[in-house]
Design a protein that fits this description.
It is a single chain. The protein is an all-alpha fold. It has one domain. The chain is 78% helix and 0% strand. It is found in: Golgi apparatus membrane. GO terms for molecular function: pyrimidine nucleotide-sugar transmembrane transporter activity. Keywords: Golgi apparatus, Membrane, Sugar transport, Transmembrane, Transmembrane helix, Transport. This is UDP-N-acetylglucosamine transporter isoform X1. It is a multi-pass membrane protein.
Amino acid sequence: MYCLLSPLCACPEMETEEQSKVFQRSLKSVSLVTLTFQNGALTLVSRYARTRPGNMFFSTTAVVMAELFKCVSCLFIIMGQEGGIRPWARRLNEDVFQQPYDCLKISVPAVVYVIQNNLLYVAISNLDAGTFQVTYQLKILTTAVFSVILLQKKLSKIQWVALVMLFTGVAFVQFKPESTSEKVSTEQNRLLGFGAVLLASALSGFAGVYFEKVLKTTKQSLWLRNVQLGFLGVVFGTVTIFLSTDGQKVRDKGFFFGYDMVVWAVVFLQSFGGLLVAVVVKYADNILKGFACSAAIVFASLASVYLFNFQLSLQFVIGACLVCISVFMYGYQPKEKTQSNLQAQGEKI
């Protein structure tokens, strides 16, 4: 009562609540800035790692290492939530090892994500950073389509307009003079890169919607699901290595052939991205998340000018602007109608 009567009294409950709000606002700002940097930096560092001269690492092994890092990180997060090793081990035993059928359901997006991430390496090896970053936003379109098909979700008129604008913007980016291409040390196949990013976008949309459906129909937490995804990703990714042309090369030269600080940075940024999106989803919203994606496009495009001698064309600028605007338009909707499937698909690269 004294807290209510005295304006000079600092009520502990009010202070705690205010401190919590300040912390959440700060965390939201920091997470959005970090997400922007992570999205742009991953594209730029991956592009540099795949086009520089010297010993080239095997991208299939990098996919496996990113999944392993993500799995281990989520295990530590769950341990912190459970408050100790014993309850942590009990939770894993009850929700993972004793439910093989449940893990079987997660194997579907796990396989798809492994294929998708390998395709992204093909794409970034053959497309300049700006074009890749813009074109990969087609995952918003594929996610929307699969949401309508698999989840019977209804999109607003402004969202459909945004999707058309997105497709138009990507089309603009593809038609640019050859003189605007980057100067790189490896042979490029633009058509192969475009095909790879198109297929990766389609797989991202399907896996994201499927994963959302699993999250909504089961009781396991997002972190536990990421542990399952990461573990199965390591298994399927390892199988992929030895089924691909990299298999014999890995046997001859070793799993970590070509690895250096740049490659480890790619692995870290890729694994860190999924965890970061989970924080953004918790403390921000789709509009702010869209701002981060749009800012990352601008960041990657401008950085490419200085890092890779990329020349911006009028078509590219128009296309990139259309894509950025479409991302904003798609996320601009009442909170109760927010498309949570975009949260699920954002957890993977």
